[in-house]
Amino acid sequence: MESKDLCAVERRGRVHLITITGAGDHRLNPALLAAIRSAVAASDGAGALVLAAEGKYFSNGFDQAWVRTAPPHLHATMDGGFRALVADLLALPVPTVAAVTGHAAAAGCALALAHDAVVMRGSRGFLYMSEVDAGIKIVDFFAELIREKVPDAAARRDLLLRGDKMTAAEAVRRGIVDAAVDGGVEDVVAAAVAEAERLAARGWDGEVVAEIRKAVWPKVWSKVKDHGAGPAAARPRL
Ligand SMILES: CCCCCCCCCCCCC/C=C/C(=O)SCCNC(=O)CCNC(=O)[C@H](O)C(C)(C)COP(=O)(O)OP(=O)(O)OC[C@H]1O[C@@H](n2cnc3c(N)ncnc32)[C@H](O)[C@@H]1OP(=O)(O)O
Question: Which reactions appear under catalytic activity for this entry (predicted)?
């Protein structure tokens, strides 16, 4: 499947809207990670970026089936591809908003939290770090991402060491998500685009946005910066 089939890209006003397509659970493997990265790279000229998804999943995390079948030497492309995508998002010269239109589990949850803002569907979908239930250790930059994006220790414990499946309302109450949106997938996307448009209207200097973001999340940036497509890095290592 070509990358353009994995993600759809459109402009809505000043907003670059990326949609992970299909009714599946959008498992993150090198092909989908590359497709999302290409879609992010196509945001030149936009004032803000939104990442959304079709169906009942935003993303259900890494593609474990791919890991089981791929030669071991390729496993690093999953980690490298994810780090590169997070680096691209942190280095982007425009505000970013995740439209969590459905379940966001494990690496899918981490991907949502790698955005500046997160709006989430109120009636469907969990924010869920399933690793403790699935018997999967998390790596350092995941821990950093959660530590920096989930500042409340109790919320971090509930997410990582209790495996809570948080609804949007719960995630808003815990300070992890910015807004719970009533209605369907398109209502969540519309709310995310509206927020992105408000941020784009501020007309910020893109380099300042990117440098402030790196300064605000320094430990995550330090663990991903050599993987992304930003000025400091060579071509993505996918
Ligand atoms: C991993 C190998 C990688 C190796 C190489 C790379 C290394 C790189 C670094 C590694 C880092 C490791 C960390 C990351 C690891 C991963 O990502 S591994 C992949 C992990 N992924 C998972 O474990 C998947 C987890 N997902 C699930 O368990 C489920 O899919 C789900 C999210 C819990 C959803 O389950 P599902 O049964 O599909 O749910 P639904 O049917 O939609 O809903 C269940 C019921 O709940 C109701 N409901 C849904 N949303 C809401 C809501 N918001 N409010 C209220 N109720 C809700 C829904 O209606 C259902 O109700 P019933 O119909 O009555 O049952």
Answer: a (3E)-enoyl-CoA = a 4-saturated (2E)-enoyl-CoA; a (3Z)-enoyl-CoA = a 4-saturated (2E)-enoyl-CoA
